[in-house]
Each structure stands twice: as C-alpha cells, then as structure tokens.
Write a structure and sequence with these properties.
Low-confidence stretches: none
Protein name: HeH/LEM domain-containing protein
Number of domains: 1
Organism: Gigaspora rosea
Radius of gyration: 18 Å
Keywords: Coiled coil
Number of helices: 3
Length: 71
C-alpha cells in the first residue's frame, strides 16, 4: 500500500475500505478485514495527532526565532 494514500487526514473508513480493495488483499474472513481497517484507522488518528503536534512545534519555533530577531 502506498504511504501517500494513507497520509491524508481526510481519509475515512470508506476510503480505507476502497484502498484495501484496490490492493486486492486476501482475508481469511470478514472479521480479519474489519480488524485491519480498525488498526489502520487507529494508526491514522495517531499519525494525524503527531503531525499536528509537529506543526505546532515548528510554528512555535518559528515565532520564537522571529520574536527574538525583533528585540
């Protein structure tokens, strides 16, 4: 699975299912497919949170640098 397709914060359960179908992954049963979707959703939430935290830290660092230049 391409990482770029999982990066979008707009990725929904429906989109995850579509992406899995594109990959033609074989599942033993419906339950294992649902487990994988749930794991991907959970990982996506974690990745988005990390991304937002990183963006905030970069923004704070930038503002701190700009503020010190003006003083």
């Amino acid at each position: 699975m391409e990482n770029a397709s999982l990066i979008s914060s707009r990725l929904t359960r429906k989109n995850l299912v579509k992406e899995l179908e594109k990959q033609k992954i074989q599942f033993d049963n419906y339950k294992s497919k649902e487990q994988l979707i749930n794991q991907l959703e959970n990982q996506l939430v974690k990745d988005v949170k990390k991304s937002k935290i990183g963006e905030c830290q970069k923004s704070d660092d930038f503002l701190g640098e700009e503020g010190s230049k003006k003083i």
